[in-house]
Amino acid sequence: MCGILGSVGRIEVGRFKVALEKQAYRGPDAEGYYQNDIVQLGHRRLSIIDLHDRSNQPMLSANKSTVIVFNGEIYNHKELRSRLNQPFCTNSDTEVILAAYESWGIEKTLQKLRGMFAFAIYDLQKGLIFLARDHVGKKPLYIGENDNGFHFSSTFNSLFCFFDAKPTIRQSSVHDFFVRSYIAAPQTIYNEIQAIQPGNLLTYSVNSNKIINVKRFWQLQRQPIQERVKKKVLLSRLKELLIEVVKKRLLADVPIGLFLSGGIDSSLVAAICTKELNYPLKTYSMGFSNPQLDESGTAKRIASILGTDHTTISTQEHGFKEIKWIVNKFGQPFGDHSAIPTSIMASKASNHIKVALTGDGGDEGFGGYHTHLALKVAQRMGKTFVYKHGRLIFRQLEPWNKKVKWINLINSSNKGYYVSDLMGRKGFRNQLQNLFNNSPDILQIDKTELDYWNSLEGISWLNKGILLDFETILPNALLVKTDVSTMAHGLEARSPFLDIDLLQFGLNTPDDLKINGVTTKYILRTLLAEYLPSDIIKLPKKGFSFDLKKFIHENFNQLRTFILDQNWKNVEMLNKQYVENTFLNFPSVNSMSFNQIWLILVFFIWKEQYDNEI
Question: Which residues are catalytic?
Answer without folding.
Answer: 2
